[in-house]
Specification:
The complex is a heterodimer of chains A (113) and B (111).
Chain A lengths: L4 E3 L2 E4 L5 E6 L6 E7 L6 E7 L2 E5 L6 E5 L5 E5 L8 E8 L8 E2 L3 E5 L1
Parallel strand pairs in A: 2-11
Antiparallel strand pairs in A: 1-3, 3-8, 4-5, 4-9, 5-6, 7-8, 9-10, 9-11
Chain B lengths: L3 E4 L2 E5 L4 E7 L6 E7 L5 E8 L4 E4 L2 E6 L4 E6 L8 E8 L5 E3 L3 E6 L1
Parallel strand pairs in B: 2-11
Antiparallel strand pairs in B: 1-3, 3-8, 4-5, 4-9, 6-7, 7-8, 9-10, 9-11
Classes of the chains: A mainly beta (113), B mainly beta (111).
């Protein structure tokens, strides 16, 4: 079975631009969460989606948004990129929205210049 | 507000040594706790998941314990190998499934 897949693996953007990151969960998993990991720190929670609805949001500005599609894949969008948005963005999928085991993708490395 | 702390931030040991990584959390009302491994620039690989009703989990050379009352978990690695070199992250789950991570322990095992 395929694990959690994220695309792209790396990308470079300029300040002020917009970026879209994509995630496909494990087959049968209905919950997708997004995390941001800056260098040297642990991942920080951004969003959780379950059954196409937002179920949780971390302490991130409104420039960050996400959505989940009927096939349970998800997109994370970041507008008006800042240098501080440079990070590894991780997607995790789990069977449902409760404290069930999370499985992570390989991440998308975003560099803002 | 739940906070997770991992000590030490970095650890260097010779090959073959047994070692313990520590994780502490401020709110004992956790649901599950999970240990992850992260290689440089890569995603997270799950090592062990301890459910809130459990005291420990074992997988191969790894053993993780959980003491909710004291707000602590430990990851024991037996007979360390250079291939164990990585960052180890501890995370606790809240009721909604959100993970709160520590900052990680960077482990280096020298041949």
């Amino acid at each position: 079975d395929a694990g959690v897949t994220q695309s792209p693996t790396h990308l470079i953007k300029t300040r002020g631009q917009h970026v879209t990151l994509r995630c496909s969960p494990i087959s049968g998993h209905k919950s997708v969460s997004w995390y941001q990991q800056v260098l040297g720190q642990g991942p920080q929670f951004i969003f959780q989606y379950y059954e196409k609805e937002e179920r949780g949001r971390g302490n991130f500005p409104d420039r960050f948004s996400a959505r989940q599609f009927p096939n349970y894949s998800s997109e994370l969008n970041v507008n008006a990129l800042l240098l501080g948005d440079s990070a590894l963005y991780l997607c995790a999928s789990s069977l449902d929205r409760g404290p069930t085991e999370a499985f992570f993708g390989q991440g998308t490395r975003l560099t803002v210049v | 507000k739940q906070e997770v702390t991992q000590i030490p931030a970095a650890l260097s040991v010779p090959e073959g040594e047994n070692l313990v990584l520590n994780c502490s959390f401020t709110d004992s009302a956790i649901y599950n706790l999970q240990w992850f491994r992260q290689d440089p620039g890569k995603g997270l690989t799950s090592l062990l998941l301890i459910q809130s009703s459990q005291r420990e989990q074992t997988s191969g050379r790894l053993n993780a314990s959980l003491d909710k009352s004291s707000g602590r978990s430990t990851l024991y690695i037996a007979a360390s190998q250079p291939g164990d070199s990585a960052t180890y992250l501890c995370a606790v789950y809240n009721q909604g499934g959100k993970l709160i991570f520590g900052q990680g322990t960077e482990l280096s095992v020298k041949p």
